[in-house]
Design brief:
- 6 copies of one chain form a homohexamer.
- Chain A is built from 5 helices and no strands.
- The N terminus of chain A is likely disordered.
- In chain A, helix 2 packs antiparallel against helix 3 and helix 3 packs antiparallel against helix 4.
- Chain A has 138 residues and is mostly helical.
- Chains A and F meet through helix 1, helix 2 and helix 3 of A and helix 1, helix 2 and helix 3 of F.
Amino acid sequence: MSLLSRLLILADRVAAPGTVHAHCDLPCGVYDPAQARIEAQSVKACMEKFQGSDDEVFKQRSVFIKEERADLVKHHLWVLWTDYFKPEHLAKVPELHDLFWRATKKAGEAKKTNDPAVGQQLLDLCDRVAAAFAATKS
Amino acid sequence: MSLLSRLLILADRVAAPGTVHAHCDLPCGVYDPAQARIEAQSVKACMEKFQGSDDEVFKQRSVFIKEERADLVKHHLWVLWTDYFKPEHLAKVPELHDLFWRATKKAGEAKKTNDPAVGQQLLDLCDRVAAAFAATKS
Amino acid sequence: MSLLSRLLILADRVAAPGTVHAHCDLPCGVYDPAQARIEAQSVKACMEKFQGSDDEVFKQRSVFIKEERADLVKHHLWVLWTDYFKPEHLAKVPELHDLFWRATKKAGEAKKTNDPAVGQQLLDLCDRVAAAFAATKS
Amino acid sequence: MSLLSRLLILADRVAAPGTVHAHCDLPCGVYDPAQARIEAQSVKACMEKFQGSDDEVFKQRSVFIKEERADLVKHHLWVLWTDYFKPEHLAKVPELHDLFWRATKKAGEAKKTNDPAVGQQLLDLCDRVAAAFAATKS
Amino acid sequence: MSLLSRLLILADRVAAPGTVHAHCDLPCGVYDPAQARIEAQSVKACMEKFQGSDDEVFKQRSVFIKEERADLVKHHLWVLWTDYFKPEHLAKVPELHDLFWRATKKAGEAKKTNDPAVGQQLLDLCDRVAAAFAATKS
Amino acid sequence: MSLLSRLLILADRVAAPGTVHAHCDLPCGVYDPAQARIEAQSVKACMEKFQGSDDEVFKQRSVFIKEERADLVKHHLWVLWTDYFKPEHLAKVPELHDLFWRATKKAGEAKKTNDPAVGQQLLDLCDRVAAAFAATKS
C-alpha cells in the first residue's frame, strides 16, 4: 500500500471514527475493505507457515485452510465490487473492474501456490481496493 | 434469451454432450452458466408466488427464500466472471465486466423487490452471460 | 446415459425452454437435475486431475475439492428425491428410492477413491436420475 | 453398476466386517439419530412459540428460524439414510426408504405450516428412524 | 465422565424424557450437549482411523474431516455457553467460563494433532459440559 | 469506546501497520477485532433502517439480515475468545470471560429487538473487546 493510501485511510479513521459503510444487500450501509484484507493476511501467513514447516500434516492443513481463506477474500471483494461501488464511482476509479478482476483472480492463484510472494501480491491488490474505496466514500 | 443464443447453446449441447467446463479453483474445468440461471428462475418464481398469495407467512417465506436464491445467483455469476473468463476472452466479449456488474447488481436489486419484471431482467442478464460463455468456450 | 434418455431430455429442452421446476421448499417450483450433474462432472474431473499430476500439493487439493463437490452432488440429489418426486411418480419410476440411494451412496464412494471410473458411474447414475425426472415432469 | 462391481463391493464388505456408522464419509463411524431429533424438537418449539405470540417480528423470526432447523432435520436424516444404512439392513427395516422419504417430506411440510401437530408428526417420524437405527446397530 | 455425572444425566433422562432445551436464539428452548459430543466422537474416531491407516490419501481426508468436525464441536459448545447458560447458573457451576474455554481450546488443539488421547480429553471435557448442563437444567 | 482505547488502537495502527494477528486454528496468526465490529455496525444499521421504514417487506428483510449479522458477530467474538486469548492474558484482562460472555449474549439480544440502543451497546462491547485485544497483543 502506498504511503498516500495509508494516510488517506488513516485520515479517514481519525476524522470519522463512527462512520459506517453497507455489505448485506438490505443494504445496511456498512462496507469495509478490511474484511478482505484480514483474510488475505491469513492467506499469506498460511503460505509462510507452509514454507517454514517439515511436518507433512501441518503443511496439508495449511493448504486447505489457505483454500478457505482465499475463498473468503474472493467473497468479500466480490461484495465490494457489486454492492458498494456504483456507476458514478467509475469516474474516480476508471480501473475499477480490472482491479477487482485481477484481485479476485489473484486470490484464486493464491490457492494454487504456496509462494508468499503471491500472497503479498494479493495483499497489495487488497490495498489498492482499499484506496479505491477511500477515494469514493462520501 | 434471444433465439440465436438459445440455438447456440442448444447446438453446443447436441454437438458436445460430454464436454465439461471448471468451477472450483482446482481448477476442475467444469463451468456451466446453468447454475446461475436455475437460481434466477427460482428468484423470479418466488416473486410470482409472493404476488399470487394472500398468506402473510407464505409471503414472508418467499421473501427470505428469494434472498438466499439471489445470493446463489450472485455467487455463481462471480465464479464465472473471475474463474472461467480469461483476459483473452475480452476480445470476443468487450462488455464482459459491465455485463457481470449489471447482472450481479440486478441480483441484489431482486432482493429488494417482489416485482417479477425484475426477476425477468435478471433471467435475461443470465442468458446474456450464457451467450458470452458459449461464445468463448473452445 | 442411454441415447433414449438423452433424446428425451433434449426433446424436453427444445419443446419447453421456458418451463421451470422448484427446489427451495417454498416451493418455488424450480428443479433441475443439471445441478447434481454439474457437480458430478467436477468430481470426475478432480479424479482425472489427481491421476494426471505428480505434484503432491495439487493432488491433496484435488482430494478435498472433490470431497466438497461430492457433498454437493449428494445435496442436490437428496433435494430432488425428497422435494421434487411425489408418491404418484412411483408408478412411472418404480426404482426411484433404490436409484437415489445408489446414486447418493456412489457420491459417498467417490470421496473415498480417485478412480475416474467411479466418477463415471456417478455421472451415469445422475443421468438416470435426469431420465426419471424427464419421465415424470408434466 | 456392473455385476462385477457389485461383487467386488460385496466381497469387500464380507472381508472387512469392521462396519462403521460415521456421519462424515471418512467414514468416522459415528452416527446418531439424536442429531435429527434435536432439530425437530426445535422445529416444533418454533411452531408453539409462533402460536403463543402476538408480536409480529417475533413470529417472523420463528418462521425463518424454523426454516433453518427443518433444513437441518432433512440434512441429518439424509445422511443417516445414505451413509449409515446399508443394503443388508433392508431385511430388518423393509420400510426403510419409505420411512425416510416420509420423514424428510414431513420436514419440508413443517416449513410450510406453524401447526405444532405437524411438528409432532415430524418428531414421531424421527423416533421411528431412531428405532430403525437401534434395530440395525450391531 | 464421573459416575455421579453419568447418574445425574441418566436420572434426568428417566425423569423427564420429553423435556426440551433451546439453541437458535429465537430462543426455541431446545439445547442438548449431545450435539457437541457426537462431533467430538467423530474427531476422536478420525484420529484413530488416521493412526490405523497407511493410505496417504485416506490420512489426508481424515485430517481435514477432523478439522470440520472440531469446528462443529466448538460451535455447539459456544452456543451452549452463550445461549443456554445464564448468570444465575454460575452459582451452581463456578468453573463455567474456564470449563468452556478449556473445552473449546481443546477442540482447537484436536485440529493440530492426530493423537487419540487428545480426542479423549475433548470427549471428557464434553462430558463435564454435559454434567454442568444437567446440574443447571430446571 | 473510551478515548484511551481509541488512542491505543490508533497508535498501534500507526506504529505497526504491517503486523498481523491469527484466526483459523492453523494457526495462521491473523486476528483482528475489526471483524466482529464491522458486523456489529451492520446489526445496528439494520435496526435503524427498520425504525425508519414503513415498508413491511423491507422491515422483515432487515430483521433476518440482522439475524445473520448478529450470528457473525458471535462467531468472530467466540473465535477471538477461544483462539486468540491465552491464559497468560488473564492477568492483563481479568474480566476477559465475563466481557466475552456479555458481548456474545448482547449479540443474541440484538436478534430479539430492533432497538438501536441495543445495537450501540453491542458496539460498545466490541470496542471493549478491541481494547482488551490491544492491551494483550505483543
